[in-house]
Specification:
The structure holds three protein chains of three kinds.
Chain A: H1 2-32, H2 47-54, H3 58-91, H4 99-110, H5 113-124, H6 129-137, H7 156-191, H8 196-225, H9 228-233, H10 241-250, H11 255-284
Chain B: E1 4-13, E2 16-26, E3 31-35, H1 42-50, E4 57-62, E5 65-66, E6 77-80, H2 92-96, H3 98-102, H4 107-120, H5 136-149, E7 154-158, H6 166-183, E8 186-191, H7 194-200, E9 203-208, E10 211-217, H8 218-223, H9 228-234, E11 238-245, E12 248-251, E13 254-257, E14 266-269, E15 275-277, E16 285-294, E17 298-304, E18 309-315, E19 325-329, E20 336-338
Parallel strand pairs in B: 3-8, 3-9, 6-7, 7-8
Antiparallel strand pairs in B: 1-2, 1-4, 4-5, 9-10, 11-12, 11-14, 12-13, 14-20, 15-19, 16-17, 16-19, 17-18
Chain C: H1 3-26, E1 27-28, E2 39-40, H2 43-50, H3 52-85, H4 91-103, H5 106-119, H6 126-149, H7 155-162, H8 167-196, H9 199-205, H10 212-222, H11 225-246
Antiparallel strand pairs in C: 1-2
The chains are: A mainly alpha, B alpha+beta, C mainly alpha.
GO cellular component, one term (chain B): ATP-binding cassette (ABC) transporter complex
InterPro entries (chain B): AAA+_ATPase, ABC_SmlMolc_Importer, ABC_transporter-like_ATP-bd, ABC_transporter-like_CS, ABC_transpr_FbpC, Mo/tungstate-bd_C_term_dom, NA-bd_OB-fold, P-loop_NTPase
GO molecular function (chain B): ABC-type ferric iron transporter activity; ABC-type quaternary ammonium compound transporting activity; ATP binding; ATP hydrolysis activity
Chain lengths: 285, 340, 261
């Protein structure tokens, strides 16, 4: 009786998730394998994958998008993790409660990525606020003297948008650990004679490492697959995998759909592999 | 000069005074218990000594050296918390060796000391365990070994046993007492448990509302608390109000001769020293039993005299009934005076 | 950096974008390299507010986000309770089912569902968009309520039950008041995720459903900064309002939201 009831609570949500997520996955795989019933194409083949990975037209595009996605995700993840660790190191010693910090960090998370990217655009573009300030101060004579920081070919704008957006996320993840007994451990270490640097290196970092590393894996996999920010403050070339997948899919040429699906499937596969690695790494500890 | 001196130490948080002009002196190797109800400020004294918090006023000196400006990690005073706080990411051996590693001692020496200390706290061979694999009592022993590893000049124990089961607590009390006998480390233990202070420390300072109201030999504190507040904390059979008439203390419960100061207004007696008789005898007071409680080796009775309530304890001979009238005798030699 | 300074810095970084949007939205004739606008004018912003397209986008976003967060709470609360408070076989599997959609990118799920929803005649309908928004929203609600429930002491419910309260009364008079902050926070965060969703709305809305992010995207490709700023303000105003209402709950682990990138 009790068992049956408990399933009743879980069933609706699970069935809806299974239906939506399962069918999206199933159809995604099927279509990437060339099963396009509306084109009367029901034969399964790996043609789309072949075109994407080694095809004349798409092959180059895929590899450059992959590299660019890796570059942006790694740089943004590494940057935000380092900043977060630095900030936590500087405040962990004296603080007992982190209410204020977790409230502002939460508010940061609530700003949509697209809006954040727009603010960055208005701020950093060649006719943006910073460029105007630079001109007023006399550092530049015309807009094009200002460095291209958004919609640039190195993805600086994308990376900046993500770093500023993910630092609060990682801060919250770190705070969850610190809040438990962080201060007590640091006090014990101090009482045992560890100086400030030793307390950071021998206590705070090992304490924060598990949560910050798994948080960084989440940040990486999010950035690797997200569409909004590169679409808003990126350029057409080089582009990220998510924008490549969606563009192919929205291409009027229906054959390109299978290729768009293939790109999105490969992208998801990489993300799942990364998440899986993170999971295993955590389990082992 | 004493080894450890606290002079006029004062501390308040947000306008609330926690400690008021605390004076304490410890000789090297002494074991002091800081006893007091929760909120009395006893843990704060340890925090000030360890350097975790700064005093508002007053001085602390260790072997003549002023401690106030010395940061916690250079004080050579180690504080053991109520929770063991073993670093979860380190093994038992690495935990114990933590302070030595911070001091950059050679690896070999650390290993050797860790092994010795583990033997000392009766956990030999547990080097490679993780803290999560140990029981609460074992964790607290590792924490103790970790504190001893740095050979602190003063060891501070902040209710280290209060979160453990009674049986393990008694066992660890034994370990702490033995370590003190063997190592003669100057030690202060904070506790709210009178029996713990009696079991461990030769000397007890009683702290109430941020003030030390008694500081003397532990057994003395228990048997003859010097003032009313101390008597209320350690528990007495009766606090008797009266006045001196020449060398005699006169009260409604009788007249007592003793070496009392001329302005004595209160005397007291321990509950086990009160004699209970079935029949009226010279120098007895009638009282009615209003409550009784079995304590294992003794019965405790609450008795109503004409004037006040008295508590008496008696080894089990005859069980007395509630409502029964008995006659109490307060032996002259067991009465002691209380300061106001 | 001291703790206070860090909190102030982060608060400042929250205000800066809003200030930038305000300046761009209300500036008139503000050409490079002027540091400060010559004139202020609310005309352009008001025109955006009156624009039928913007109004429709706002309304449809509102309907979708409100519907989705209500639906997600209704479905998510019982699921989170079972998942967090009960031990059963396959718990890990179900947990995975709610975890996976939070890491698989919405481009991938959206592309996959595009055809399915076309087939089911759900594409281009408000209900279809709501349904597809459940993919990121429902797992988030389940996981965030789950972590609130981990701080929840069920003995309050047991106490009420042994005092004679019926299950319905227990829910209504005990569980609901105790969990209300967590439920409100989860609901607000659900609203926010749905409100910010672009890719899924685009792929399932099929041009028939217009939401605010779509308008923002088309303004962004147009490159008119004051238009972008006006739309951004309209976009985040309701979010700021809602977050302001729940901000005080966000600081504690028992009622706060689970962080997400």
């Amino acid at each position: 009786m009790a068992k049956w009831r408990s399933w009743l609570g879980l069933a609706p949500a699970s069935i809806i998730m299974l239906g939506l997520f399962g069918s999206s996955l199933g159809y995604g795989i099927a279509q990437s394998l060339g099963w396009l019933p509306f084109l009367d194409q029901r034969e399964l083949s790996l043609a789309a994958y072949r075109n994407v990975l080694v095809g004349q037209q798409l092959g180059g595009q895929w590899w450059s998008a992959l590299l660019f996605s890796l570059w942006v995700s790694c740089a943004a993840t590494f940057g935000s993790a380092c900043i977060c660790l630095g900030l936590l190191s500087s405040i962990a010693e004296r603080q007992q409660h982190y209410r204020g910090l977790s409230i502002v960090s939460n508010l940061h998370l609530a700003i949509p990525h697209s809006v954040w990217a727009m603010a960055l655009l208005l701020m950093l573009s060649q006719s943006g606020i910073l460029a105007r300030i630079g001109f007023a101060v006399g550092w530049l004579d015309q807009p094009k003297d200002f460095p291209v920081l958004v919609r640039d070919r190195w993805g600086i704008g994308i990376i900046l948008a993500y770093i500023t957006k993910e630092v609060p996320f990682l801060l919250l993840i770190g705070l969850a650990t610190l809040r438990q007994q962080g201060r007590a451990y640091l006090l014990v270490a101090q009482s045992l004679g560890a100086n400030r640097w030793q307390r950071l290196r021998l206590v705070l970092w090992p304490l924060l490492a598990p949560s910050l590393i798994s948080g960084s894996f989440l940040v990486f996999s999010f950035i690797f697959g997200a569409y909004e920010v590169p679409a808003l403050v990126g350029v057409r070339y080089p582009e990220m995998l998510a924008t490549m997948a969606l563009e192919l899919f929205l291409n009027p040429d229906l054959q390109a759909r299978a290729e768009g699906m293939a790109v999105s499937m490969l992208m998801s596969l990489i993300i799942l592999a990364v998440v899986g690695l993170a999971w295993r790494w955590r389990e082992q500890r | 000069m004493s080894y450890l001196q606290l002079d006029q130490l004062t501390k308040s948080y947000a306008q609330q005074t926690i400690l008021q002009n605390i004076n304490l002196n410890l000789n090297q190797g002494e074991f002091l218990a800081l006893l007091g109800p929760s909120g009395s400020g006893k843990s704060t004294i340890l925090k000030l000594l360890a350097g975790i918090e700064a005093a508002d006023a007053g001085e602390m000196r260790l072997a003549e050296r002023l401690l106030n400006p010395v940061p916690a990690h250079q004080r050579e005073i180690v504080l053991l918390f109520q929770q063991p706080y073993l670093f979860p990411f380190l093994s038992v051996a690495e935990n114990i060796g933590f302070g030595l590693k911070a001091r950059k001692e050679p690896k070999k020496l650390i290993q050797q000391k860790v092994a010795e200390l583990l033997e000392l706290v009766e956990l030999g061979g547990m080097q490679q365990r993780k803290p999560q694999q140990l029981s609460g009592g074992q964790q607290q022993r590792v924490a103790l070994a970790r504190a001893l590893a740095v050979q602190p000049k003063v060891l501070l124990l902040d209710e280290p046993l209060s979160s453990l089961d009674p049986e393990i607590r008694v066992n660890l009390q034994g370990v702490i007492a033995r370590l003190h006998r063997e190592l003669h480390m100057t030690t202060i233990i904070v506790t709210h448990d009178l029996s713990e202070a009696l079991a461990l420390a030769q000397r007890t300072a009683l702290l109430i509302n941020g003030e030390i109201i008694a500081d003397l030999n532990s057994i003395e504190l228990f048997e003859r608390p010097p003032n009313r507040a101390a008597a209320q904390f350690v528990g007495v059979g009766a606090i008797i109000v009266g006045h001196m008439q020449g060398p005699t203390f006169c009260s409604s419960l009788g007249q007592f001769n003793g070496n009392f100061a001329p302005n004595t207004r209160h005397v007291a007696i321990r509950p086990e020293h009160i004699q209970i008789n079935d029949q009226p005898q010279p120098q007895t007071i009638a009282a009615q039993i209003i409550e009784r409680r079995y304590l294992g080796e003794r019965w405790e009775y609450r008795l109503q005299t004409n004037e006040q309530i008295v508590v008496a304890r008696e080894t089990v001979q005859a069980i007395r009934e509630i409502g029964q009238t008995v006659y109490l005798h307060f032996p002259q030699q067991s009465i002691f005076a209380l300061n106001d | 950096m001291s703790y206070r300074k860090l909190v102030l810095l982060l608060a400042f970084l929250l205000i800066v974008p809003i200030a930038i949007f305000l300046v761009y939205a209300f500036a008139q004739g503000w050409f490079f390299p002027a540091l400060w606008p010559e004139r202020w004018d609310s005309e352009l912003f008001l025109r955006q507010l009156r624009d039928p397209q913007v109004r429709r986008g706002f309304e449809q976003s509102l309907v979708v986000a409100t519907g989705v967060s209500g639906l997600a709470l209704l479905l998510g609360y019982p699921a989170a309770r079972v998942l967090e408070l009960q031990q059963f076989r396959g718990r890990g599997l179900i947990y995975g089912l709610f975890f996976l959609p939070t890491v698989v990118p919405s481009v991938a799920t959206g592309i996959g569902l595009n055809i399915v929803f076309l087939r089911l005649d759900l594409a281009g309908t408000l209900f279809g968009v709501m349904l597809v928004h459940l993919i990121p929203v429902l797992p988030y609600v389940v996981l965030t309520l789950g972590s609130s429930l981990a701080h929840y002491d069920r003995n309050y419910e047991h106490q009420a039950a042994v005092l004679g309260a019926s299950p319905w009364l227990v829910f209504w008079r005990v569980s609901l008041p105790l969990l209300l902050p967590s439920l409100v926070v989860a609901g607000v965060l659900a609203f926010l995720i749905s409100w910010s969703q672009y890719v899924l709305s685009l792929l399932i809305g099929g041009g028939k459903i217009i939401t605010l992010p779509m308008l923002l995207f088309s303004a962004a490709s147009g490159g008119n900064y004051s238009l972008i700023a006006s739309l951004s303000l309209i976009f985040i105003a309701p979010l700021l309002l809602l977050l302001g209402l729940v901000a005080r709950y966000l600081g504690s682990p028992a009622t706060g939201a689970t962080p997400r990138p």
